[in-house]
Specification:
- The chain is of the alpha+beta class.
- It has three domains: 53 residues, no CATH class; 129 residues, CBS-domain; 85 residues, Uridine Diphospho-n-acetylenolpyruvylglucosamine Reductase, domain 3, CATH 3.30.465.10.
- Helix content is 32%, strand content 21%.
- It has ten helices and twelve strands.
- The strands form three sheets. The chain has a five-stranded antiparallel sheet, with helices on one face.
- Strand 2, helix 5 and strand 3 form a beta-alpha-beta unit.
Length: 292
C-alpha cells in the first residue's frame, strides 16, 4: 500500500502541472482526498489535515484572530521593570506595544529581547526602546495568503486592523498552523492555561463559565432560549445587558432558571461567572433591564 509520503508527492504534482490543462477545483481535490481516505491510502490524521488545508482558502483572519479585548499588550512608555511581571504572569513570547491606546500599535516586544538588559537598571529602559517592527494586515485577509506571507518573511505575529485602521485583533503563526494540524503549544506557554475550557462543571452542580462563551453554548447547557439575542453575542455580554452596567465581582442576578454570580470582571468586561441551575425554575422571574 502506498504510504502518506508517496500520496502527498503525487498530490503535489497535481498542483504543479506544466501543461495547459485546467487547474483542479476545490471540489475535485476534496473528492481525491476523501476517496484516498476511504481506501486507506492515507492515514486518518493526514486525511483531516489535507481537508483543513483545502478549507483554509475560505477562512479569513477575523475568524481565527485573538480579539483586541483578549490579547495582552504593553504601553510603549512602560519600563522593563513594570513589564517583566506581566511576561512572567502571561508567559507569551511576543507582545504588541501601543502608544496612547490599542488603535495605535507601534511595535512588537519580544520577551527574549529583554534578557540582555536584566543586568542593567530596568527602570530606565522602556518598551519603546527595544521594540521590533509590527506587521499590519486587514482583518478580511484570507488565512491561506497570510500563512504564505508569514512563512516567506519569517514573521511570527501580525496585528489585524479593520476598514478604519483600528486594531481588531492579533494573529500568530501558531494560530494559523492550528487551523491545519490542530491545537499546538508554544514552548513557553503554560499548557494548563492553553487547555482551559469555557465551561467547567463544579462539584456543587454549578458551572464556571468564561465571559467569552457564546450564547449558543449557554442555551444548549441549560436548554433555554435567550431573549434579545441581537444585543449581545457572549455570556459576558448577556450579563452586562442584564445588569445594565459592568457588574462588580460578587454581584448576582437571576435569569430564567439560572442564578448568575460574577466571579471575575474588570472595568471593561465580565471575564467569568458562576452559573447555578435553580430548582423550581418555573417560579423564578426572568431578569433583564426591561424586566421581560
Amino acid at each position: 500500500m502506498e504510504n502518506d509520503t508517496g500520496f502527498l508527492n503525487r498530490l503535489k504534482k497535481l498542483f504543479h502541472r506544466n501543461d495547459n490543462s485546467q487547474p483542479l477545483t476545490e471540489e475535485a481535490l476534496q473528492e481525491i482526498i476523501h476517496t484516498s481516505g476511504e481506501a486507506g491510502v492515507i492515514a486518518d490524521d493526514t486525511h483531516e489535515m489535507l481537508n483543513s488545508i483545502i478549507e483554509l482558502q475560505d477562512i479569513r483572519v477575523q475568524e481565527v484572530m485573538i480579539p483586541r479585548t483578549d490579547f495582552t499588550a504593553v504601553s510603549a512608555d512602560a519600563s522593563l521593570q513594570d513589564i517583566i511581571p506581566t511576561i512572567n504572569e502571561r508567559g507569551f513570547s511576543r507582545y504588541p506595544v501601543f502608544e496612547d491606546n490599542l488603535d495605535n500599535i507601534i511595535g512588537i516586544l519580544y520577551a527574549k529581547d529583554i534578557l540582555k538588559y536584566l543586568q542593567e537598571d530596568t527602570r530606565n529602559i522602556t518598551a519603546r526602546q527595544i521594540i521590533r517592527p509590527v506587521y499590519f494586515i486587514p482583518e478580511t485577509k484570507k488565512v491561506q495568503e497570510l500563512l504564505q506571507e508569514m512563512r516567506k518573511k519569517g514573521i511570527h505575529i501580525a496585528v489585524a486592523v479593520d476598514e478604519y485602521g483600528g486594531t481588531s485583533g492579533l494573529v500568530t503563526l501558531s494560530d494559523l498552523v492550528e487551523e491545519i494540524i490542530g491545537e499546538i503549544y508554544e514552548e513557553d506557554v503554560d499548557q494548563k492555561a492553553a487547555e482551559e475550557k469555557n465551561i467547567v462543571p463544579q462539584d456543587d452542580g454549578s458551572y464556571l463559565v468564561a465571559g467569552k462563551t457564546e450564547i449558543e453554548e449557554l442555551e444548549d447547557l441549560f436548554d433555554i432560549e435567550v431573549d434579545n439575542r441581537g444585543k449581545f453575542e457572549s455570556v459576558g455580554g448577556l450579563v452586562i445587558y442584564l445588569f445594565s452596567k459592568i457588574p462588580a465581582v460578587g454581584e448576582t442576578i437571576t435569569y430564567k432558571n439560572i442564578a448568575i454570580q460574577v466571579t471575575d470582571a474588570d472595568e471593561r468586561r465580565v471575564k467569568k461567572v458562576r452559573l447555578s441551575p435553580l430548582e423550581n425554575a418555573d417560579s423564578e422571574p426572568a431578569a433583564s433591564p426591561d424586566n421581560v
